[in-house]
Design brief:
The strands form 5 sheets. The chain has a 7-stranded mixed β-sheet with strand order 16-18-17-19-20-21-22. Strands 1, 2, 3, 23, 24 and 25 form a 6-stranded antiparallel β-sheet that branches. Strands 4-5-6-7 form a 4-stranded antiparallel β-sheet. The longest helix is centred in the N-terminal third of the chain and has 16 residues. Helix content is 14%, strand content 39%. Helix 1 crosses helix 2. Keywords: Signal. InterPro entries: DUF8086.
């Protein structure tokens, strides 16, 4: 297995260094996942009540089905309106929401058991892609970047460039004031205009950042290491340089953080959720625990040629743990109980897949989107009450 894994490690190294290739390949794999999932025992499609929602400009609208949702032009995935990250909030008295989702080129959604609220800020989101959702004292923190492959500097909007005097890197959302606050700027990180962040990993103590620079024919990489001396929410771009003492990291140090681990090293909770999968099944799962830090990825290499992707999570208050595959196959359990329930979310039309997911109380929200391997059209999310299933 370890001999075969070396090929995967080389692939992920290239992926970690080149954000476009990694994400494009991942999205391509998810669009063919249904064929591989047929190897798993038949799991019943969900028949309990659920609600569909789609994005229509800077608003969320309820829709009867994804196939009849508001139309959207096809765009590269870094430029399209779509959910790029989702996570449950670690237990905290400071948050009015139990889960959040980042909406690329649009804003951020706050989830409760009752519904979803979308918050937009054109000065931040209109001309930047968004990724890397983590938490600081219950408040969501994320980073902004621009794809050097797809982003056209000449098309930078006046709405965004006219407001920003410095380019934000890390941003916090305050659920009480409903405002976004820049915490760290690209200038603080000593990053150039041409630099693209390809990976940003936070373990609760240290940030490790991967950056690429140059044309597509000649790309250079650099790696940064940073340990904030104060809590993330106490940072401000105007603070002195001692708060942004950033040292150069190495490729080896960066990869030691971002490379996926073997599934044998996964926490027991995640292993329990996926115990029904046959040993021959190859999969890659990104797992968020309740720490509010960057998710950790695990890889199992079976005999199946196609490795399928999934997201896994432990919800706020440690009430549920769940795994969601791109075809809608879900494994879920109440924490503290042994029983694992399996079901399928409603089947999506051809060309649609499920993506990021998070749990708010007894309700699970799962993103869906339409598109090709590297482009996205329509997108939105489904709302499902887990209490009706377990």
């Amino acid at each position: 297995m370890r001999k075969n894994l070396s090929g995967m490690v080389k692939f992920v190294f290239f992926a970690a260094a080149t954000a476009f290739c990694f994400s494009a390949c991942s999205k391509k794999n998810t669009r063919t996942v249904s064929r591989s999932m047929q190897n798993i025992r038949q799991i019943e499609e969900l028949h309990v009540s659920h609600e569909w929602f789609c994005f229509d400009g800077n608003s969320i609208k309820e829709t009867e089905l994804p196939s009849v949702s508001a139309s959207a032009s096809e765009k590269p995935w870094t430029e399209a309106v779509r959910i790029s990250c989702a996570a449950s909030v670690p237990e905290s008295e400071n948050s009015l929401y139990k889960a959040y989702a980042l909406v690329n080129r649009c804003g951020l959604i706050g989830f409760t058991e009752d519904g979803a609220d979308l918050f937009c800020d054109n000065s931040l989101f209109l001309d930047s892609s968004v990724q890397g959702l983590v938490f600081s004292s219950g408040s969501p923190v994320f980073y902004l970047y621009r794809s050097t492959f797809f982003f056209d500097e000449k098309k930078v909007s006046n709405a965004a460039s006219g407001v920003q005097t410095v380019r934000p890197f890390l941003v916090e959302f305050d659920s009480r004031s409903k405002n976004f606050y820049p915490l760290v700027s690209y200038e603080n990180m000593n990053l150039e205009k041409e630099d693209q962040v390809t990976g940003c990993f936070w373990n609760g103590d240290v940030w490790v950042v991967g950056v690429k620079n140059g044309s597509q024919s000649e790309i250079q990489f650099k790696y940064l290491w940073w340990k904030p001396p104060v809590a993330l929410g106490d940072l401000n771009p105007a603070l002195g340089g001692e708060n942004f003492f950033i040292r150069k990291s190495s490729e080896q140090e960066y990869l030691s953080v971002c490379l996926p681990k073997l599934f044998e090293e996964a926490p027991l909770e995640l292993k329990t959720l996926l115990k029904a999968l046959p040993e021959s099944f190859s999969f890659y799962v990104s797992y968020r625990d309740d720490s509010g830090t960057t998710p950790v990825s695990y890889y199992h290499e079976g005999k199946s040629e196609q490795s399928v992707n999934a997201v896994a999570m432990t919800s706020a208050g440690k009430s549920y743990s769940a795994v969601v595959f791109a075809d809608g196959t879900v494994f879920v359990k109440k924490l503290g109980f042994d029983k694992v329930s399996a079901f399928r979310l409603p089947k999506l039309p051809d060309g649609f897949v499920y993506g990021e997911a998070a749990v708010a109380g007894d309700v699970m929200y799962a993103a869906w989107e339409e598109g090709s391997s590297w482009q996205t059209k329509r997108s939105g999310f489904i709302k499902v009450n887990l209490a009706d299933i377990l």
